[in-house]
Design brief:
Shape: elongated
CATH architecture of the largest domain: 3-Layer(aba) Sandwich
CATH superfamily of the largest domain: Response regulator
CATH class of the largest domain: Alpha Beta
Mean pLDDT: 86
Number of domains: 2
Length: 211
């Protein structure tokens, strides 16, 4: 496949960004087969649209997210390359702190990391060359946390008390407090257990999922 006949599908709920992506990639000699705003629209095209690469936002404002869309597309199109283009610094933020199963042949990009369209086109070509590799490079402070710590942090950001987190996770309140102290240390947040610390921790989570 040459770099002049890559067929691309886009699912992005921000209309301005969706338009910009389509225009910019078209100028890079890529064929935009579809550009839609919802997961359901993208899924309806699985049997009829022929694409080489799917560009998907993670958060689409629906029960079905961009990861779900990409997995379902790849079931019908095993060689499909996937570029996740999202504001989520860590994909675990969309799944309650647990590591989600991402599509094969994927490249994970944060919107804030892209300054030129060439960076996106490079990711598109890379997704076509991965041949089943699924490694995602996590960046930012949240990358330091384990899945268990991410789950605890996500529950805190949702407003749960230590007692509620303990009940949900099936552990003691003391264990929750210890876990939050370790998380605070890893993220460089003041470690004293008070409401201010909880606010700081919640802001870290919310800052990592700004879309």
């Amino acid at each position: 496949m040459t770099k002049k006949n890559v067929k691309v599908g886009i699912v992005e709920d921000n209309s301005l960004l969706r338009l910009s992506l389509g225009t910019s990639l078209g100028q890079e000699n890529m064929e935009i087969v579809f550009s839609v705003s919802t997961a359901l629209e993208a899924l309806e095209l699985i049997e009829t649209a022929k694409i080489d690469v799917l560009i998907a936002d993670l958060h689409l404002g629906e029960t079905i997210n961009g990861i779900d869309v990409s997995i379902l597309w790849q079931k019908s199109n095993p060689d499909l390359g996937v570029v996740y283009l999202t504001s989520y610094e860590d994909p675990r933020l969309i799944s309650g702190g647990k590591s989600p199963v991402l599509a094969e042949n994927h490249v994970y990009l944060t919107k804030s990391s892209i300054s030129e369209i060439s960076e996106l086109t490079k990711a598109i070509y890379s997704s076509l060359e991965k041949k089943g590799r699924t490694e995602t490079k996590r960046t930012g402070p949240l990358a330091k946390l384990t899945d268990v710590q991410m789950e605890t942090l996500s529950l805190l950001a949702l407003g749960h008390s230590n007692k509620e987190i303990a009940r949900i996770r099936g552990i003691t309140e003391e264990s929750v407090a210890i876990s939050l102290n370790r998380i605070s240390k890893a993220l460089g947040v003041p470690s004293h257990m008070d409401r201010n610390q909880r606010v700081h921790l919640a802001r870290v989570v919310l800052g990592g999922r700004s879309d």
